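Human:
If only I could read backbone structure tokens as easily as an amino acid sequence. I am handing you a single protein, as its sequence and its fold in token form. I hope you can help me see how the letters and the tokens relate. Thank you; the sequence and its tokens follow:
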Amino acid sequence: MAPVPITQIRVGHIDDVQELRKAKPTTVPERFVRDMTERPALLAFAPSSPCAVPIIDFSKLVKGNKDERQSELLNLARACEEWGFFQVINHGIDLSLLESIEKLSRDFFMLPLEEKQKYPMVPGSVQGYGQAFVFSEDQKLDWCNMFALGLVPPNIRVPKLWPTNPPRFSSTVEDYSSQVRSLCQNLLKYIAMTLSLKEDTFEKMFGVAVQAIRMNYYPACSRPDLVLGLSPHSDGSALTVLQQEKGSPVGLQILKDNKWMPVEPIPYAFVINIGDTLEVLTNGKYKSVEHRAVTHKENDRLSIVTFYAPSYEVELGPMAELVDENKKCMYRRYNHGEYSKHYVTNKLQGKKTLEFAKIESKKPTQ
């Protein structure tokens, strides 16, 4: 069974950001106002050049000639090592399916609150409608509504949380998730190649990989300088696949060289990021990167996120091929289910959850 948190606080309707937005408050409720050190810099809302996250042409990896494939593998290696983020174009997933999942996700969030509350993210779960990672009554909330579902393996599914409205929602999620799963499997095959590993290294290691999907809805906010759409964090997954609704404002920011930099979405591209699991497996060669979401004063934003990770039964640690006298072992071995439980029972707080796996360096004796 999937590990679950046991102390999560339920967020009530008074903290539902869509309902707050409808009420058009003159001030942002205190529960959402960030401390000065956490607030997005005003620069984030001024015209600025988005960071040039590497772009990977998936078609060149799959069916390019030898030179094209080798060149794209080098681009992928650089993206994983220097950025931890990249955008994938020409990924082969039908664009009409991307449009369908966007429309149905938006249709779900536009349902009346009482309809959405039929699928509550109850305490002890990170599935359903609401806000995850809320563990105290005085914790600052993100300016975001979420709807999340476990997909694979079957025992993490909660059938009563799968909506019958909008029609075709569930069947579209199934189709979309199946194709994104194949994309993740292929990307991991090519990532293995960048590390001079066998193509099936991660597939064999992961067992029946865990997969979940989450839709995020960020309503416009009258004071985007005071709130965060999603708190800074790294992902506990191996890979995360982000689809941003076509026409949405820039909301994703990554921490690059100690600066928060906006990522301009490319229409129909996926934003891929390395999760904590791959950082551990590669012994820190490929790092998970802290990221967050900001809000917009006038426009809302929708994103669809897929998390792909090893089976909860798998024991993980740095791969032997990436540990030697020049690169000591930075992480201990652990059960992935234990780490997953640790991740979802702590609030989002940068890369703090990864301390679970780190080997503490011993201080030299005097």
User: Anything to note?
Assistant: Confidence is low (pLDDT under 50) at residues 1-10, 44-48.
